[in-house]
Amino acid sequence: MNKLEIDWTRCDGHGLCAGLVPDDILLDEWGFPVLRGREITAGELSDARRAVLACPALALRLNNR
Ligand code: SF4
To answer: Which Pfam families does this one have (predicted)?
Structure first.
């Protein structure tokens, strides 16, 4: 099951990720990401991987546990 995870020791609240995968990540009022916690479907994997690569703080990860 593929899911996005955030390393809170790294996230700086750039908010880039929410723009790339809006169905999976919202932003809170301070611009920090809120994961919806849903499974990333096969059709969404490429967008999720793009968001992981775009995170300037290397805080976003894709796990398949
Ligand atoms: S792009 Fe990275 S640093 Fe920015 S809010 Fe998303 S997870 Fe945090």
So the answer is: Fer4_15 (PF13459)
